[in-house]
Amino acid sequence: MARSNLLLQQPPSAVERTLVEVGSALRLARIRRGWTQAQLAERIGTGLRAVADAEKGKPSTAIAVTVAMLWALGLLEHYAALAEPALDVEGERLARAKAPLRARGSRGADDRDF
Prior knowledge:
The structure is a single chain. This protein has a single domain (6-98), classed as 434 Repressor (Amino-terminal Domain) (Orthogonal Bundle), CATH 1.10.260. Helices cover 58% and strands 0% of the residues. The radius of gyration is 22 Å and the shape is extended. The termini are far apart. The chain contains 7 helices and no strands. The protein has 114 residues and is mainly alpha-helical.
């Protein structure tokens, strides 16, 4: 029997809250442009149900739908900053802590020690 996905059934409150906030922002942006959900769905090549679910903040909505909606609404560049590695301060700190204290070079044919 397949195991149920707890993230879809009961996501952490911060995740659920953010999904609803992003969905509301997408809905507002669509309405400001005077588009129906059906028009937005057609622009991104998906169904009306996927757009409606994204706007409701449903955890089961594919990330591709959400990103495509951001793209169609001209908002992708605002959210693309999330992919910027420099924003992952904690990740950088952890990587530096794991890095060797001294870099070891490899000796190749061009590396002559006289």
